[in-house]
Design goal:
The complex is a heterodimer of chains A (about 35) and B (about 270).
Chain A lengths: L1 H28 L3 H4 L1
Chain B lengths: L7 H10 L6 H15 L12 H36 L4 H15 L2 H15 L11 H31 L2 H8 L4 H29 L3 H6 L5 H10 L3 H29 L1 H7 L1
Helix pairs in contact in B: 3-4, 3-6, 3-8, 3-11, 4-6, 5-6, 6-8, 7-8, 8-11, 10-11, 11-12
Classes of the chains: A mainly alpha (about 35), B mainly alpha (about 270).
Chain lengths: ~35, ~270
């Protein structure tokens, strides 16, 4: 049970890092209003 | 931020001030260290307010809407599913299944507009959008609950029918249990587990901010805040929302899995 929880929490942390990194990159490179005009 | 006529020096100064000249991974590392270790999600680029404050302000509305929608989906889903399973093949069953297909097929934004048209514009029973009173909660909650209720109803119906034909139910009936006792003691506990999983996953979607529904009904929740921030290119707010929503979804998933294991010994012995 403890091992299962540690594994799940570890996986959750990795997911959080991956998702937030993708969001950060996507937002950084998203075209602004100037690019649309 | 500094206008269209800013000089090259002003632009360069702003880039340095906002650390845009640093490599991406360095900026991300600094942001995440601040967010995870100090709880500092930065400031909104548009309103100059702390992102944490904005999220805390919006969170209760989203939780309220999510819980009401979830309660509605649970009650309606279980009732319709059990009714349909009690007389398979009957008119009630056919109507229930037809209703659930509609509930799953109709897109929420369309349902939302239809509800507004009927209950707000024609009948004048409920407000079109906004928040502040229980009446404001009804239409967004129904819109959000509909797909969840339909999924739960279908799951409850199919799992009750499946468990009804199981050997242990036949044994229970042959030992002299009334159909009602067999339903309450044997059929229901065994058939509710899949529905519970779906409800849990549904809750994580709802707490994460039901973007479309919150935007249509101008509900002041996380979803609307995030959509607005995306249109405004307000990076810190979108990142803050991501950092709040992702752990919520993951935690709800974990709780659902643990609950699943607690309710079903077969899962407990195999998975944990």
């Amino acid at each position: 049970m403890t091992y299962y929880l540690i594994r799940r929490i570890g996986a959750a942390l990795i997911t959080l890092l991956v998702v937030s990194f993708l969001a950060y990159v996507a937002l950084t490179f998203a075209p602004g209003d100037a690019a649309e005009g | 931020m500094i206008g269209e006529n800013a000089s090259a020096e002003q632009i360069a100064a702003l880039r340095t001030q906002m650390r845009l000249d640093a490599p991406l991974w360095e900026r991300y590392g600094e942001y995440m260290a601040g967010a995870l270790l100090r709880g500092d999600l930065g400031e909104s680029l548009i309103s100059d307010r702390r992102v944490g404050d904005l999220l805390v302000e919006r969170f209760p509305s989203t939780v309220l809407l999510a819980l009401v929608a979830m309660g509605l989906a649970t009650v309606v889903g279980f009732t319709v599913g059990l009714l349909a399973a009690s007389r398979p093949g009957s008119r009630i069953d056919v109507a229930a299944i037809g209703g659930t297909v509609l509930g799953l097929a109709l897109p929420p934004y369309w349902v939302a507009m239809l509800l507004v048209m009927v209950f707000s514009l024609h009948l004048h029973w409920l407000p079109v959008f906004g928040s502040g009173s229980p009446a404001h909660l009804i239409l967004p909650a129904i819109t959000l609950a509909l797909p969840g209720a339909a999924t739960v109803a279908r799951l409850v119906r199919s799992s009750v029918l499946e468990v009804k034909g199981a050997d242990f139910v036949r044994t229970a009936l042959s030992k002299g249990l009334s159909p009602r006792q067999a339903l309450l003691r044997h059929i229901l506990p065994n058939s509710l587990i899949p529905a519970l999983t779906v409800l849990g996953l549904n809750l994580s979607y709802l707490v994460g901010g039901a973007f479309v529904v919150e935007t249509i009904f101008a509900w002041p929740g996380l979803g609307r805040l995030t959509v607005q921030a995306i249109f405004d290119r307000d990076l810190p707010v979108v990142m803050g929302a991501v950092l709040v929503v992702v752990p919520i979804c993951l935690s709800v998933n974990l709780v659902v899995d643990l609950l699943h294991a607690a309710l079903d010994p077969r899962v407990r012995h195999h998975a944990l």
